[in-house]
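Annex B. Sample input.
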Amino acid sequence: MSGQLLLLAGLPGCGKTTYVKELERDGWVAFDDFKACATNDSAKFAHSRHYEALLGALREGRRCVVADIDFCTSKGRGEAERALRSGASGVTFRWCFFANDPDACESNIRHRNRAALDRDLSKMREYAATYVIPDGAEVRSVRKAQA
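Annex B, continued. Sample output.
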């Protein structure tokens, strides 16, 4: 495989989806909320309903971006890396992390005013408590919601 893969980690409300959409406009194949609605509600990376499409795009040499809040956990990142090394050997991948800034994320979540407000805030707090960004990692600031 010869494609490129960017993996995005960040809390709900940090700007992952906005960044994914920007990359998609630049020709990247985008997979946002990668593990959502996975086969049998599995949390495994390779059980995502998008896994085969991701591998296909990488085989074609495409640039792909994958985002998921589970990447805020070292377990989620490790499981994704193992699945990629197994299913997409030879692919170059790198991680990009959004800052662990719960206050800014909460402000963004409240600004977008979705029906899932309480769930999003709960998930943000849950992940913020254990989200550790590895030393030396590429870190992006949390994006401010557009007025």
